[in-house]
Specification:
homodimer; about 450 residues; alpha/beta; TIM Barrel; eight-stranded parallel β-barrel; two-stranded antiparallel sheet; 15 helices; monooxygenase activity (chains A, B); Diverse_substr_monoxygenases (chains A, B)
């Protein structure tokens, strides 16, 4: 059997810093232009030149204010704050490209399915069927407070709400308008055949809907569904709903375990484990020679912003790390935040974990493989990780802008192509079809089709 | 004193039909492509070629189901259904233009200020300060039902909620981040100076906010504020908040009255009447000769879809017109829907108004001037209307796509320029500055600056 081609997304965010605080200060770095439209259209064109599968845009709805009980450290570092709505730049990126997909993070905790359904249908129409939705529930208390709620919903209850949300939004996307309902028959004077448009009613514990979906069916109807939960409840949700799952995994063993459990969860939900495309987060630094890659790594490390990084980690773990001295042991405790973060950080850390270790650890791979070297060396390692873990590909994080993406497109992709482990042209069809589905639409037994 | 230049927006909607049902069936009409991105980028480039002030995109959150108690007639006619989220195409339109503004309709009834603030800040960043927000509250019961609410909020109560919404969102846009808070100082390692970012608390009757605004200040901070209310309560709201007001007026007397009352409302709110730019809706058909314009009018009239038009009017007025025979007198009654519609329809109608009169009346100008002729004839009439009513310009409705906009850009604009009544180049600066403001930001005594 021929070895599979890797899938590669570029992992981005509408903020000056994503996961490695300090890198916006690199000489010539363009991250400071995150709020300019050309920043996004240039990125899209570069990524499509490299035949990448998707631009995956993270989002966080809130600010990292666990560290020191204030947003000050995050603000000073530009650590995911300021941030912006990732829906907005999509149509511009779609306009300058033809094939690349867009994985857009949208938090459903503060949305209603009736409204969200229209927004994503519009995105799918305007991109010609290239939209994916990364389904997240909020984990920052600050986001809940901003929205006038006194506390964030508890972790598992967020998934109950998400299940109800999905049940309602599937009905709108898949069942309200039959195939062929929109006839555009000018002679007969019929735009839509009303007999083939159906009122949706949903009376769930959290959401009620009564009405027809406002948009006509888009090329994919339901966007390609991304998800990232790796708690037990999150895996159960992913097993039922996700087509692509984004996983963190600092060691091959952890990543392989997460991958296996996710495929099991899909089987438990009556789907095939192979219905899931698994993307492992990874950080890469690529240069023409190993020595140059080492130098780049050293330069990035010199620019690491310790306080900004701890502000991020405090948000991820829900623990205020500002009170610790560098030599203090980190007192890990279970919180209401992202549960996998803790497990991932501790997996590769020295025991006990000292406060000073956290900064470099989390920036460079406590949560994900961190690989630097020549394109050939990086390709070796990515292929080894894929082999050892069973993932389908990687979400390659932005480190320096646009250097990281340029190096992926100009160095890594040709190397993988030479090894026949990366496509040399996009497949036809929608984003879902380019990811290997025989259909533009989700198919049974996916729960979206239970009602369609 | 030199006569003022007219302001002209093109008035669009993300739907196959806007206000004149049936026109999508015109030979060669492109309205059926409303869900394609090129439709929007082509429109933007054409409008900017004509130096138009803005692309004003209407929206309706719901479906017209008053007529016959079902959405069938609206669906068959494509009458504002299907419809899409007007936020989505903006960045693509911004990418292919440099100067034109975007007036985007967004219903605040189902939004939260914390989330809406981030979305519009993102739009303003990505367009380089070219965003306007047309503030609307929902008027279709179907929209409320879709969102799981049993009844739409009553008319005046919607404005109470809107006042609370605006008070909260102004704080986020204007007061959370001081000027100069974002320093982007790579050497000092400071992206944002946290001392100049402030937590916003808002405890209103409808909305609570506790947190910093998530986006850094965009070029205009608060987008240019459009509003369209002409009820007494609506005018009071416009007088306090609006910078641009979109008015309907079937006769010069009604339009002049509305314009005068709006400027009075601004004065009553402590602002100047001239702080408002008033745009009168108008329908124009322009052709090289009067005879050709007459022929176009006849052709458009032949394509008028009576049932689709009555579906629209039933939605606007809240009266089910499906039960009436053509010769029946229309029993006008006050409802919870758009109050000015009734007044406007009856103003120009024969008395009593028969059901059969409503169709042509509402398509061709019961709510707005309807003018057809050569560019010179249309210019004469628009200037006369502007003179007689005191409005600053017009929202020229899309009738045929792209014929209407092309005729405005290629025929009407040069005619107005030759008369020195239309600009020959865009002014510098943001949308607000292009509209004549000395500042990119709103200025006191506008209530947005009470907190800034």
């Amino acid at each position: 059997m021929m070895a599979k081609e890797l899938r590669i997304n570029t992992f981005q965010m509408c903020a000056p810093i994503h996961n490695w605080a300090g890198l916006w200060r690199l000489p010539g770095d363009r991250a400071v232009d995150y709020n300019k439209l050309d920043y996004w259209t240039d990125m899209a064109q570069t990524a499509e030149r490299g035949l990448l599968d998707a631009i995956f845009i993270a989002d966080v709805f809130g600010v990292y204010d666990v560290y020191g009980g204030s947003p000050d450290a995050a603000l000073r570092a530009g650590a995911q704050i300021p941030n912006m709505d990732p829906v907005v730049p999509v149509s511009a990126m779609a306009h300058v490209t033809r094939n690349i997909g867009f994985g857009i993070t949208a938090n459903l905790s503060f949305e209603h399915p009736f409204q969200m359904a229209r927004r994503f249908s519009t995105l799918d129409h305007m991109t010609g069927g290239r939209i994916g939705w990364n389904i997240v529930t909020g984990y920052l208390e600050s986001g809940a407070r901003g929205m006038g709620r006194s506390v964030q919903t508890e972790h598992d209850a967020r998934y109950d709400l998400a299940e109800d949300f999905m049940a309602a939004i599937y009905k709108l996307w898949e069942s309200s308008w039959e195939e062929g309902a929109v006839v555009r028959d000018a002679e007969a004077g019929i735009f839509t055949d009303p007999a083939r448009v159906h009122r949706i009613t949903h009376n769930g514990p959290h959401f009620q809907v009564d009405g027809i979906h406002l948009s006509e069916p888009s090329p994919q109807r339901t966007p390609v569904l991304f998800q990232a939960g790796t708690s037990e409840r999150g895996r159960q949700f992913a097993g039922r709903h996700a087509e692509c799952v984004f996983i963190n995994g600092p060691t091959q063993k952890i990543a392989a375990g997460a991958a296996g459990k996710l495929r099991d969860a899909a089987e438990a939900a009556g789907r095939s484990g192979n219905d899931l495309s698994l993307f492992l987060a990874a950080n890469v630094i690529i240069a023409p020679t190993s020595a140059q890659a080492r130098e780049l790594h050293a330069e990035y490390s010199r620019h690491l912003d310790a306080a900004g990084q701890l502000a991020l980690v405090s948000g991820w773990t829900g623990m205020d790390l500002s009170t610790l001295s560098p030599e203090d042991v980190v007192p890990f405790a279970r919180t209401n935040a992202i549960q996998s973060t803790l497990e991932n950080i501790t997996a590769k850390a020295p025991r006990p974990v000292l406060a000073k270790d956290l900064v470099a650890l989390t920036a460079t791979g406590a949560r994900a493989p961190f690989i630097y070297g020549t394109a050939s060396e990086v390709a070796d390692q990515l292929l080894e990780w894929a082999e050892a873990t069973g993932v389908d590909g990687f979400n390659l994080a932005r480190l320096s802008v646009p250097a990281t993406l340029n190096s992926i497109v100009d160095q890594l992709v040709p190397e993988l192509q030479a090894r026949k482990r990366f496509k040399t042209a996009y497949a036809d069809g929608t984003f879902r079809q380019k990811l290997g589905s025989p259909s533009a639409r989700l198919m049974a037994p996916h729960p979206a089709r239970l009602h369609g």
